[in-house]
Amino acid sequence: MIPSSILNFRTKYSILLFLQGFKSFDYFKNIAVNKNKKHAYIFLAADYGNLGDVAITYAQTRFLRDNLGDEFEVIEIPISQSLEGLHFVKKNIKPGDIVTSVGGGNLGDMYDQIEYIRQLAVKYFPKNKFISFPQTFDFAETSNGIKSLRIAKKVYNAHPNMFFIAREKTSFKLMQGHFNKTTILLTPDIVISLDKEKPMQNRRGAVICMRSDKEKNITEDQALFITNQIKTRFDAVKYYDTHIDKNNLNVEERETELAKIWDTFKSAELVVTDRLHGMIFCYITNTPCLVFQNNNHKVRETYDWIKGNTNINLMARFDKEEIKSFFRRSQFNTGTIQKLKDLYTPIRENLN
């Protein structure tokens, strides 16, 4: 088991990374690198059971393939294969290749092991453009968070061609303040670039998609009240979390799991969620949604990108009367999705 201490993890990982240099490739041995093309590498590609992160990886891969064109080959480095992946990319990378890391909410001290691997990738490839896709800046104002941020600033500001993309305005301002030697851009979460509305399905019942981890903001009593309101309003109620109990998923398994949850949402009259990607999945499938906030700014400020879509409803605060009023609606209509693809122009302009 990897020790929980970031110092212990860094030490252990550094040793394993050194030893990996003497081993042959196992995971990447069957991946043919086309020497006649440029390459875009994606580090931290999600192959674990968080479908929000899996969707980010899927959308980022699609985005790069669509916008880089045939001149480039896109290669994912699954997070579980990061040790081997660092050596694999080091062996194959050329001038003009792009290194990227997945977007999400792992830029900070909460998910310190992921943060450390991203820093390693940045240090490994100082001669290539490095793009961190849309992220939430989430370093806590604690002794550990302050220490972690100090290390991150040193690593990221030292890279001569580093791009950070913030997915909300708060993160954008914080990145500008701390990563002042890098280029900072602002776009929505990359999953919002997808369109999964079709094929449309008949809608019936509700889906509850609520979190139970350290980002949860709703109390147990509040969650019970919400659930009772849903069950009073709908005969058919399903529970579907964006986190499934599976790891080491291959690409086909990841896409199958994404299709399952998107189809489930598309067959619901309403989804109730406090998960960021629960809300985003509703947006890309044009599913009516009631959203409660998590314990930081990412849900609230991501909602600002899509709030013109009247089928997405954010509860600014927990209010029983307001919740009761919401569920008294006779129906929850889908509207026309406002396409936001133009908002990703800052990334497109900086890919080459």
Overview of the molecule:
- With 352 residues, the protein is α/β, with parallel strands linked by helices.
- The protein has 2 domains: 6-191 and 343-349, Rossmann fold (3-Layer(aba) Sandwich), CATH 3.40.50; 206-327, Rossmann fold, CATH 3.40.50.
- The protein is 41% helix and 17% strand.
- It has helices spanning 6-20, 51-68, 82-92, 112-124, 143-158, 169-178, 220-233, 251-266, 276-285, 298-306, 320-327, 345-349; strands at 38-45, 72-78, 98-101, 104-108, 129-138, 162-166, 183-186, 206-209, 237-239, 270-273, 289-291, 312-314.
- The strands form 2 sheets. Strands 1, 2, 3, 4, 5, 6 and 7 form a 7-stranded parallel sheet that branches. The chain has a 5-stranded parallel sheet with strand order 9-8-10-11-12, with helices on both faces.
- Helix 1 crosses helix 3, helix 2 packs across helix 8 and helix 7 runs parallel beside helix 11 (320-327).
- The longest helix has 18 residues, at 51-68.
- It starts with 5 loop residues before the first helix and ends with a helix.
- The model has no long low-confidence stretch (mean pLDDT 92).
Summarize the structure.
This protein is of the alpha/beta class and 352 residues long. The protein has helices at 6-20, 51-68, 82-92, 112-124, 143-158, 169-178, 220-233, 251-266, 276-285, 298-306, 320-327, 345-349; strands at 38-45, 72-78, 98-101, 104-108, 129-138, 162-166, 183-186, 206-209, 237-239, 270-273, 289-291, 312-314. The protein has two domains: 6-191 and 343-349, Rossmann fold, CATH 3.40.50; 206-327, Rossmann fold (3-Layer(aba) Sandwich), CATH 3.40.50.
